[in-house]
Design goal:
The chain contains eight helices and five strands. It is an alpha/beta fold. It folds into two domains: 77 residues, no CATH class; 129 residues, Glutaredoxin (3-Layer(aba) Sandwich). Strand 1, helix 6 and strand 2 form a beta-alpha-beta unit. The longest helix is centred in the middle third of the chain and has 31 residues.
């Protein structure tokens, strides 16, 4: 009797284990899915698209621009209707209109990310990184380029600085001007318009008509000067920071190089 019981158990386990092995083999033979094991089929997605087009047949004969305007207008109308008459039907119509727009926006966003990822020419973060470390590298490289461009004109250009001792902005701007000239090895000529010399520039020149010639109407005023061509290029009227001065002179230098390049090409 005991032998018969063991035989039944053995046969049962054998059948169960065989079935379990078949299921396991079938599972492991499938595509690897990871945690995201649920996968919507293409047929299901197409049904959703077909359903949308069936609900709104007006979209089929419209241009893309007309379709977007129609969806936007439809969403607004259904929203206003649901606000004024919040019935189950009206709210459902609004949610349906909103769902269509959200789905289309989601599809666009996903494709946008893919295109930017595979086409580096459209990826702005390559030249202008947004990460903290990347931003630091970008700023360091930008500062280096500014310094190089400004120093490239240190032998051919200088600075004229117009001020009045009675001007509070001039008194705060003076040490910044002084630091800027020293950092970039630019010759600086301070000019006092009221005849009084600043403590930061005890060797200042007194204005003898150059201020009127350049029509300096407000102080502080800073000019980039090119003596060989007798050119005075405005850099700053009013108070400015050291970074602002560097950026402005850097732009002036780049503009000059651009103009010279175009002139030589002609």
């Amino acid at each position: 009797m005991m032998k018969q019981v063991f035989l039944v158990i053995a046969l049962t386990c054998s059948g169960f284990c065989s079935m379990e092995q078949v299921l396991a083999d079938d599972f492991f033979s499938q595509e690897k899915k990871g945690w995201h094991w649920y996968k919507e089929s293409k047929q299901q997605k197409q049904k959703v698209i077909d359903s949308q087009e069936k609900d709104m047949p007006e979209l089929q004969n419209m241009t893309p621009t007309e379709q977007v305007e129609f969806l936007r207008e439809n969403q607004q109308q259904t929203l206003h209707k649901a606000l004024m008459k919040p019935t189950e039907h009206n709210v459902s119509e609004y949610l349906k209109a909103q769902k269509i727009i959200l789905e289309k926006s989601g599809d666009f966003t996903n494709m946008y990310k893919q295109v930017v990822q595979i086409k580096p020419e459209y990826n702005g973060t390559i030249n202008y990184p947004t990460s903290q470390l990347g931003s630091k590298i970008y700023q360091a490289n930008l500062t280096k380029n500014r310094e190089q461009s400004i120093r490239s004109i240190s032998r051919t250009h200088g600075l004229f600085y117009f001020y009045r001792v009675s001007c509070p902005y001039c008194n705060k701007f003076a040490p910044i001007i002084k630091q800027f000239a020293q950092d970039h090895k630019l010759e600086l000529i301070p000019v006092s318009l009221d005849g009084h010399k600043s403590k930061d520039f005890p060797n200042s020149q007194v204005n003898q008509g150059i201020g009127a010639k350049l029509q300096v109407k407000g102080v502080p005023a800073l000019y980039l000067v090119e003596p060989q061509e007798n050119k005075f290029i405005p850099v700053s009227f009013g108070f400015a920071t050291l970074d602002q001065l560097e950026e402005r002179v850097h732009l002036i230098v780049n503009q000059k190089l651009h103009l010279n390049t175009n002139h030589n090409q002609r």
